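Posted in: Structural Biology > Protein-Ligand Complexes

Title: Requesting predicted complex, adenosine-5'-diphosphate in pocket

I'd be grateful if someone could produce the 3D structure tokens for the following input. Sequence and ligand are given below.
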Amino acid sequence: MSTDASPPLIECRNLTRSYTLGTQRKLSRSKDRPTVTALDTISVSIDRGEVVGLSGPSGSGKSTLLHLIAGLDTPTSGTVTFDGTDLSTLSGRNRTKHRLENVGIVFQHFHLLDALSARGNVALPLVELGIKKRDRRARAEEILEAVGLGDRITHKPAQLSGGEQQRVAIARALVTNPRLVIADEPTGELDTETGAQVLDRFTSVAEDTAIVLATHDPETLAIADRVISLRDGKLVVDETDSEGTKVTANPHTESVSAQSQSQSVE
Ligand code: ADP
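-- Reply #1 --
Done. Output follows.
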């Protein structure tokens, strides 16, 4: 738990993200264009090392919230702070540096480069950080070992199963020792058993890293310490603690299992 001396790792306050649609000339004035509110005044905080599930039907705002938390997108209004720093105060360059150093991303479709080996894929974020080749290779091998792929280091993605490819993607997200990993439907392309194995490796290797994973899958949500539930861009339920500073959401949708409901109260 965070204390006054140590702010939450992530704190979202009154986050709203709207998209203005339409570029036709007759709708050229922005007030005439239709607007989609993907997220509507969301306030939530995430602690260090916490595993948070993000549930909700398709279109409820999960990806939008992940992108804002990761600093990949900027809110229409409201703030995201990372360890006390308001991301909107960072220049574009510093925001990129922040993402490279502190945030790992796991996509549903893995997004591995076909031409590179597992080790080459995992080492890529270290290239961007300017780490020397020998150190990159050693670190990539170490993290591939940790996710159980020590014997697949030189394999190309096409030579790996779906579950192995996702473990390479997880290793790539963790290779920089990020403080936060976001994962958008990380097991969406895997069968249930493989998905469970991949998640198990993920959370055990990422012990000190906060993980936010968006999914509709109740089995994936069951690994979370807490579940935040969205519907139409709003938190389904939110509770504020006695000091009024921390907001926690509890799932109350039919897609969320009773098990994850019982996990959701801190
Ligand atoms: P989820 O991840 O839960 O499926 P999203 O965050 O992708 O939901 O989308 C939330 C809402 O915002 C949806 O109605 C979606 O159509 C809309 N939306 C997302 N991205 C854009 C965009 N770039 N332009 C317009 N509308 C968008």
